[in-house]
Amino acid sequence: MSAGVLLMTGATGFVGRQVLHLLDERLDLHVVSRRPAATDLPARAVLHQIDLTDADTVAELVAKIRPTHLLHLAWTTRHGVFWSDPANVDWLVAGIALLKSFIRHGGRRAVIAGTCAEYAPASKAPCQEVGTLLAPATLYGAMKLALYRASMALAAEHRISFAWPRIFYPYGSGEQEQRLIPSAIAAAKRGECFRVDNPGLALDFMDVRDLGAALQTLLMSSVEGPINLGSGETMSIGAVVALIEELISRHSTRPSDSIRGMLVPDLRRMRSELEFLPRWQLRQGLLDSIALSEHSRGGRIC
To answer: Among 119, 111, 106, which residue's Cα sits nearest to residue 224?
Structure first.
């Protein structure tokens, strides 16, 4: 018996592909992509190749399939560009239009991806969903925060179930090679010195496999409102890079930089209400990421 109809965006992306094969098989699955799927889709998935920023096309699709569930992950994500990309504004508008169409055609449960960039850039304590200052320092964070506020208001007005996962720092298979962890791995394997801008900033790095599982669990749960998703492991950027070098070269590196600020989640809602516990510890996740590339010699962490 069908549990409903799911419309999923961002299904072929870094995070989305981890969710796809975990989804409840009772859901009729429809996925959206601007381009032909670059990853294997489940046999039951129906692919719709459309531009999500085209509100009329989106409205026609939603009217046609009448989804009961929505998982919206798509956004501008190109490394080095997305923080200030003017397209962030377009994605804000697109997200509001998508949710309005979803509500208009009988949608019941919506999960839209947020970001830790909605919080102030650094703090002295873990970020709480309610209570911690929301003060994004980038256009990306500001537009995500604006979509959160608009979505919460729409969901309350129309009495639909709505959750907003604030995602911290995912890493792992399929990650863009320019991002921190793949770049540090590549440099260490080439024997090169790898320099980071803010080595003392402590972050929460979550294996993308765990993130996919958490999002699937959240979608099928009754948890509502903002909820942080992270690993619960806090480590400075400098320490993570040093650990990567150690795992590759198999010898200890110099002491890591002391922590000078943090952007890490308070995970009490994830643990107690969602009842989700990550499976992959950072050390094992890094080993798995290292194993994806060819063997080479260790490097030097600057």
So the answer is: 111
H or E segment to which residue 7 belongs: strand 4-9
Highest-confidence range of 161-175, 239-253, 281-295, by mean pLDDT?
Answer: 161-175
Q: Judge contact between 217 and 209, C-beta under 8 A.
A: no
Tokens of residue 75, six digits: 């956004």
CATH tag, 4-170+207-229:
3.40.50.720
Helices 180-189, 237-249: crossing angle, 10 deg rounding: 40
Using CB atoms within 10 A of its CB, is residue 222 exposed (0-12), middle (13-18) or buried (19+)? exposed
Query: What would the two tokens of residue 86 be?
Result: 């003017």
Query: What are the CA-CA distances from residue 266 to residues 134, 217, 229, 255, 269 (Å)?
Result: 14, 18, 9, 27, 8
- Span 172-204+232-264+280-301 CATH architecture: Alpha-Beta Complex (3.90)
223 touches 265 (CB < 8 A): no
Euclidean distance between the first and the last CA atom of the chain, given in angstroms as a whole number: 57
How far is 89 from 112, CA to CA, in rounded Å? 16
Query: How does DSSP assign 80-116, residue by residue?
Result: TTTTT-THHHHHHHHHHHHHHHHHHTT--EEEE-EEG
- Domains of the chain, by residue range, sit at 4-170+207-229, 172-204+232-264+280-301
How do residues 123-180 score in pLDDT, each as one tens digit? Answer: 889 999 999 999 999 999 999 999 999 999 999 999 999 999 999 999 999 999 999 9
Instruction: Report residue 82: phi and psi, to 5°.
Output: -65, -25
Q: Taking the CA atoms of the chain, what radius of gyration do you get in angstroms? A: 20
